[in-house]
Amino acid sequence: MSPANSPRPSLKSTGHLALQHFMPYRIAVLARGVSAALAKQYRSLGISIPEWRVIAHLAEVGTCSSGDICQRTEMDKAKVNRAVTRLVAAGLVLSSISDQDRRLNVLKLGAKGRRIYEEIVPIALDHQRALMSALSERERRDFEQMIEKLQAQTHKLWGADLSMDDARED
User: Which of 17, 68, 114, 170 could form an SS bridge with 64, CB 3.0 to 4.6 Å?
Assistant: First the structure.
């Protein structure tokens, strides 16, 4: 029997935490596995997961600052800054100084970045379809609702106290 299918003794009854049944750990392992599988596709185009997230975000919003990307994607500032630096150097993202606040860089996708985005989107959507095919239509809707509830609860309980720097895996 796989760990995911084995009986789950309660923490209260056993007095210890069984990591393979600890939900935050299981979610992290799932997310890491899903991202790693898709990252193989990104690598063939010469970009990393954080770089893809920056590209995808810019494709969605048009222009914004690095800080906006940090806030909206919940990626840590150093990771976003490294990704942006590499993307600008590669000519995928264009950077200019904000007219409203000279301390801010305004970012937008360049033509090369747009082409990579358009190449990855079908791959990413196929990846998602393949993963979600394990669930029925009803399970997919339920899963989406559960994810939304857990994200809302996370923000309600700890949102103001969270920093992605706290979640780094050093």
Answer: 68
